[in-house]
């Protein structure tokens, strides 16, 4: 597991989910496909960032979304997509990943989303307003009725808890898997046990 990549993804990509979904809903003609499109965008960004981190995460995220929809347009010949800013000029080249790596990326993304949902209400609101809606810190403080210093603390706390929830959940899964392997090993007869089968209490083979 690449902990640096996961932390980067949570801090610089996942926080833009609301804006990404809004863009997809405006640009794509099939509302029932928005969820799958979003997940596919995340997988592509995650895989690409594993090779080289983009210098501008948010533009890279939206360029990846447009690149994906363009691919589907060419295959399905659906209606055209409205351009967004100068994202069209960005060169987004993302290699196709194996099914195993794609599955792993999807699982990581699901854990990140679950971790975000588990944040305390105030932390989640501060992170959302500052990182997703990109409001100035002063405006976030006014909206929440707290000081700017408290906003900073809530955002720092939220990002720390996000990492703890995410990595803690993975650690628990790893521990459960290890315990399962240990139980299977314990239930498996050892070579010594197998060697004693068919012997009497003095080590002689039965029938001697």
Broad shape: globular
Radius of gyration over alpha carbons? 25 Å
User: Residue-averaged pLDDT, rounded?
Assistant: 73
Number of domains: 2
Distance between the termini: 57 Å
Number of separate helices: 9
Largest sheet: none
Helix content: 55-70%
Class by SSE composition:
mainly alpha
The portion of residues forming beta strands comes to: under 5%
| Beta strand count | 0
Instruction: Return the string of H and E elements.
Output: HHHHHHHHH
Low-confidence stretches: 77-97, 169-176
Question: What is the compact description of this entry?
Answer:
With 208 residues, this protein is mainly α.
Annotation keywords:
9 helices, mainly alpha, 2 domains, Arc Repressor Mutant, subunit A
Give a structural overview.
With 208 residues, the protein is an all-alpha fold. It has 2 domains: 1-117, no CATH class; 119-190, Arc Repressor Mutant, subunit A, CATH 1.10.10. Helices cover 69% and strands 0% of the residues. The protein is built from 9 helices and no strands. It has helices spanning 3-12, 17-27, 34-51, 57-76, 99-117, 121-132, 137-144, 148-187, 191-196. Helix 1 runs antiparallel to helix 8 and helix 2 (17-27) packs across helix 3 (34-51). 22% of the residues are buried.
Layout of helices and strands:
Layout: H1 3-12, H2 17-27, H3 34-51, H4 57-76, H5 99-117, H6 121-132, H7 137-144, H8 148-187, H9 191-196
Helix pairs in contact: 1-8, 2-3, 3-4, 3-5, 5-8, 6-8, 7-8
Region (Disordered): 173-208
Organism: Lysobacter enzymogenes
Keywords: Sigma factor, Transcription, Transcription regulation
């Amino acid at each position: 597991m690449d902990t640096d990549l996961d932390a980067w993804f949570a801090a610089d990509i996942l926080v833009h989910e609301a804006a990404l979904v809004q863009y997809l809903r405006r640009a794509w003609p099939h509302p029932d496909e928005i969820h799958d499109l979003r997940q596919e965008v995340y997988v592509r960004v995650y895989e690409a960032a594993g090779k080289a981190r983009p210098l501008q995460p948010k533009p890279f995220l939206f360029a990846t979304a447009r690149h994906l929809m363009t691919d589907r347009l060419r295959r399905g010949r659906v209606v055209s997509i409205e351009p967004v800013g100068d994202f069209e000029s960005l060169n987004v080249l993302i290699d196709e990943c194996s099914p195993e790596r794609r599955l792993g990326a999807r699982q990581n993304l699901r854990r990140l989303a679950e971790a975000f949902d588990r944040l305390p209400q105030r932390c989640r609101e501060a992170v959302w307003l500052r990182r997703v809606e990109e409001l100035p810190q002063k405006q976030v403080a006014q909206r929440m009725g707290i000081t700017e210093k408290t906003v900073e603390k809530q955002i720092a706390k939220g990002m720390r808890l996000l990492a703890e929830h995410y990595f803690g959940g993975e650690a628990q899964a790893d521990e459960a898997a290890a315990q399962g392997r240990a139980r299977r090993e314990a239930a498996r007869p050892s070579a010594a046990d197998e060697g004693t089968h068919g012997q009497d209490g003095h080590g002689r083979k039965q029938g001697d």
